[in-house]
């Protein structure tokens, strides 16, 4: 079962990260923004490494990450875990699962997180608004593009390239919703979680991060990552932000931002 219900609470004065995300691709009218904010009032604080929803569940809600991170994952027959996506503020965990009926994978928090529980009928009502419907389609298509990039990352890149590519992607996505700047962002992932996403071992991930530090490409202290030489990391990992389909002004890799 997914996380038990928690008391409803308002998020007065806080910017909705879903609004920030969708506004990068759509000129949303005020009434659409108000509708998005209205469906996010049931916001629940979850502890770290807690399941938001599990494989086989039949969801009553669409889950939106408001704060913190989450991860999609599958448990394999041998008991190991494969992470297939990291979800950041503004990402819906399961926007279209109500069409399919039940979850075919699980989603868990990465550290503490705040999650909006949006009733299915409210999400369906939002999709009847033309500009929001187009923006949601964009978000879905980008999710699919990210998954394709991850398949390539795991299957064809060496460990150094794979880790670098993931770092560049996460920075670009965080910057897109206003949660990163100047090549710095909060990275709450453990080396084990990075390994589970890239098909590596935690020891291998540790070696790659140590090498990147020694090459003055990154610093990583207390969960805060800074990319010291973005151009070099982008080049070394073969990262191209085109699959994220975000405007050039918010791309982390634009030439003037090195």
The CATH topology name of the largest domain reads Jelly Rolls
The secondary-structure class comes to alpha+beta
Specify the helix fraction band: 25-40%
Q: Say how many strands there are.
A: 8
The portion of residues forming beta strands comes to: 15-25%
Ranges where pLDDT stays below 50 over 5 or more residues in a row are 1-13, 248-258
Return the average pLDDT rounded to an integer: 88
Give the biggest beta sheet: 5 strands, antiparallel
Alpha plus pi helix count: 9
CATH superfamily of the largest domain: Jelly Rolls
Number of domains: 2
Which value, in Å, is the CA radius of gyration?
18 Å
CATH class of the largest domain: Mainly Beta
Q: Distance N terminus to C terminus?
A: 45 Å
Large-scale geometry:
globular
Give the H and E element order. Answer: HHEEEEHEHHHEHHEEH
CATH architecture of the largest domain: Sandwich
Summary of the model, kept short:
With 258 residues, the chain is an alpha+beta fold. 39% of the residues lie in helices and 21% in strands. The chain has two domains: 17-132, Jelly Rolls (Sandwich), CATH 2.60.120; 157-257, Winged helix-like DNA-binding domain superfamily/Winged helix DNA-binding domain (Arc Repressor Mutant, subunit A, Orthogonal Bundle), CATH 1.10.10.10.
Question: Can you characterise this structure?
Answer:
Strands 1, 2, 3, 4 and 5 form a five-stranded antiparallel sheet that branches. Strands 6-8-7 form a three-stranded antiparallel sheet. Strand 3 (61-75) and strand 4 form a beta hairpin. It is globular and about 50 Å long. It is α+β, with helices and mostly antiparallel strands and 258 residues long. It has helices at residues 17-22, 30-38, 97-100, 120-126, 130-156, 159-176, 191-198, 202-214, 230-237, and strands at 43-46, 51-53, 61-75, 81-87, 106-119, 184-186, 218-221, 224-227. The protein has two domains: 17-132, Jelly Rolls (Sandwich); 157-257, Arc Repressor Mutant, subunit A (Orthogonal Bundle). Helix 6 (159-176) crosses helix 9 and helix 7 crosses helix 8 (202-214).
């Amino acid at each position: 079962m997914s996380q038990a219900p928690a008391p409803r609470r308002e998020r007065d004065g806080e910017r909705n990260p879903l609004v920030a995300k969708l506004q990068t691709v759509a000129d949303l009218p005020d009434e659409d923004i108000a509708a998005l904010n209205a469906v996010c009032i049931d916001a629940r604080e979850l502890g770290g490494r807690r399941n938001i929803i599990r494989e086989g569940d039949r969801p009553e809600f669409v889950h939106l990450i408001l704060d913190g991170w989450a991860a999609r994952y599958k448990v394999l027959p041998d008991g190991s875990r494969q992470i297939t996506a990291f979800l950041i503020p503004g990402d819906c965990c399961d926007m279209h699962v109500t069409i399919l009926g039940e979850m075919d994978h699980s989603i868990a928090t990465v550290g503490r997180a705040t999650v909006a529980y949006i009733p299915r009928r409210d999400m369906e009502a939002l999709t009847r608004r033309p500009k929001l419907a187009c923006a949601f389609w964009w978000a879905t298509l980008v999710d699919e593009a990210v998954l394709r990039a991850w398949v390539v990352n795991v299957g064809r890149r060496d460990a150094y390239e794979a880790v670098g590519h993931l770092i560049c992607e996460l920075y670009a996505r965080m910057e897109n919703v206003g949660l990163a700047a100047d090549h710095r962002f909060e990275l709450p992932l453990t080396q084990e979680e990075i390994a589970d996403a890239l098909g590596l071992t935690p020891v291998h991930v540790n070696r790659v991060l140590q090498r990147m530090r020694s090459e003055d490409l990154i610093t990583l202290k207390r969960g805060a990552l800074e990319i010291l030489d973005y151009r070099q990391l982008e080049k070394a990992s073969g990262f191209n932000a085109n699959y994220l389909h975000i405007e050039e002004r918010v791309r982390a890799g634009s030439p003037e931002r090195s």
